[in-house]
Amino acid sequence: MHPWMPFLLTLAICSAMAAGGDADDLRLIPFPKEVRRMAGEYVLGRTLRLDAPAAQAEVLGRLLNEELRRAGLEAVQVRARGMPGLEFRVGVQESDGGSWGLSPGDRPESYALEVRGDEVVCAASDPAGLHYGLQTLCQLIRANRRGDALPCLAIRDWPSLRWRCFQDDMTRGPSSRLETLQFEASLGSFLKFNLMTFYMEYQYAFKKHPRIGPPDGALTPDELSALVAYAKPLQIDILGNQQSFGHFGHILKHPEYAALRETADVLTPAREETYRLLDDLYSEVCPLLPFPWFNVCCDETWGLGTGPSKALASEIGVGGVYVRHIRRVHALLKEKHGKRMMMWGDIILQHPDQLEQIPKDTLMLTWGYDARPSFEDQIVPFAKSGYEFFVCPGVNNWSRILPDFGVAITNIQHFVRDGVKHGALGMLNTDWEDDGEAINAVKWHADAWAAECAWNGSTTSIESFNRRVGAVLFGEGGDHFGRAVALLGRAHRLPAMKGMMNARFWEHDFIPKTRPAAIESNATNLLAIVRPAIECLERCRAEARCNRQVLDAFLFGARRMELIGRRMLDGLEAARLYETAYAANAGAEALAPVERLVRKNRDAHEVLGRAFASLWLAESKPYALDWTMRRYTNTVQQYDALLRALTDARAEATAGRGLPTPEKLGLVLPKPLTRRMKPGQIIETQLDPELPWADATATHRLGLVIENSMPGQHFVTFAGLIEGSPAQAMDRIESSLNLKQPVSVILHALQAR
């Protein structure tokens, strides 16, 4: 038996009924290590009493009662019990005070839970394990209840990774409100995360350096303290973070910090004032964080050795300069602020000869975000060198309309799998809000998947997970949420959608840019994915009993995707209608359907802009909202300009002067493109024979002048002589030219070297 005496959680009732089913049908995240279904049911919906250890009774009772109330069931009475015994009882019957034969094992955070016909009992190896047993019970109530009954079952469970961390990027614009941070801690605890971190460059209210944090978008010391106090009873620790080398541009842009610039974005290690500044920053954050580790980041130090440290870099190398800074920061953090240093591992992996110079008590954070088969090349160097390390996959939400779910799923699964194989201490699942145009809640599918992988060592399938995730997060009856995510992940693979980056949404593709057939194909392929996904999300929302704001964020992203497809088709139709009206010399009345299409899309963007602002302000402080709202305003103004042009065209037609050309209006169908394989003109002289040869191996070249092209002059070089006329040579090399624009080509005579 573990030194902790088992904690026991009991709910008793008087009624039991038979129940069957497969354990694999249970909807739990993370899925338990061992599950055994038993006959019978445990009936809720009566007056129950929860007996729990005094130190945890209030929190466990609150969490359980919140879940029961969501289910429309009566709350339990909570009784705090002292050691030993830790009985749980219901109604008037006394508990017999026995141990109920449960053995949670002695692993940290392990628990055993049984749902019996007359009671629910749980034993744990430590307080965290007892908490997770309660969270599993809450998930059974939310996602596995039939009427007012739970299936009888036995669970033994423990995590594969000791530390399971998720992140809130609070320094790329969005700055989460305290209520958002507390919600994240609650949901993270529900998914059995035990560590939460925030990424910080400059959006903190430093008292010693008040210029750094924006007043309407900075985390305050009081908020950080409140988050720590809120999260600790939920078995969540808060890991501190402060960029300490690269990504320092928002601080260095202020004149008072100009002397500390190595580059515009990198803090110089060549000034002693650098370490006084870092000391000031750490001194305002570290005392608020009881957790003993602190992440100093120090990643992506592009340009190191090109500023004030250039002379030092010429002596000891850029890697030597990097390590010297790391050692200074390590000493400052450990000796003055009592923290164990964590750092991103990307730069030191570029200087493997310097790795041994990093203090051995440093916790390495090795990160990578692609969907590769193996991450061992980023893990083994740290494992072999004796460093404790975390694997750090990512949500893949950065600068995207919605996360790239397909890449995130593979990235998280493989990185965690390889980390477990090589003895990782933990996992930190990252989210990055690079372009500032981010709604935080869309990360929760990937974060829930990360919780699943970190708990189970990446041994469960995404198909099984997607069947469970909607019920666990929202209490839906079906699997609509998982189906929606599987569909939306396919949208990122559509070539014309450019990875579903936010920049793709801001393309003004209402005006047709390519062949009509291509527009129709690209738009219909997108809508065939997105519209069923929206239907699934709406069904999930209709069934959801909690966390609907998360679904609202997913729906918002899906509707942005849908609008891309709609406006492509609407713009093509508007251009066709206008061209037809112009060709027929139609009157002003022919413009009405064109105007309706333009206004429909103008209004759709305005509505999405208002929805974005509402979602943002529900999550984050006002700072940086205007960055994105300007994009919505500018887009609406583009449609307004087109509507004004149509109003002017209507006036011209009404006055009898006819409609302006599609080109003049700005709504024109692209001309059909043909491949040009024959020159428009052949000139017997060579094209500028004195120009240098671009290909040293070529023996011959043809000179071309392509009108309406930049650059205007081209050479096609090749080895060996192409016999025949220049026109025949043009036929032979048309695949190299691949001219698809309607331009005029002038071909010059063949030139030998």
Summarize the structure.
This protein is α/β, with parallel strands linked by helices and 753 residues long. The protein is globular, with a radius of gyration of 32 Å.
Q: What does the model show?
A:
- It is a single chain.
- The chain is α/β, with parallel strands linked by helices and 753 residues long.
- The protein starts with 10 loop residues before the first strand and ends with a strand.
- Strand 13, helix 8 and strand 14 (363-367) form a beta-alpha-beta unit.
- 41% of the residues lie in helices and 14% in strands.
- The strands form four sheets. It has an eight-stranded parallel β-barrel with strand order 9-10-11-12-13-14-15-16, surrounded by six helices. Strands 1-7-6-8-3-2 form a six-stranded antiparallel sheet, covered by helices on one side.
- The chain is built from 21 helices and 20 strands.
- Helix 17 (592-619) runs antiparallel to helix 18.
